[in-house]
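Checklist before submission:
- one chain only
- standard amino acids only
- sequence pasted in full

Submission:
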Amino acid sequence: MEDDEHQELIEKYKQKIKEEFGDLPAFEKKISSKEYTDFKRELYPY
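Returned file contents:
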């Protein structure tokens, strides 16, 4: 179940990248781990 949630998070993150940066794969843009952490916090606030 945790894997599914993780996969869902990845898909949402990819979608966010696509909206913000266009269709380039994420690894072609420098996305900091802080940005990723902030994004995770938005989806799954603790």
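Reviewer check: Residues 5 and 25 are 21 Å apart (CA to CA).
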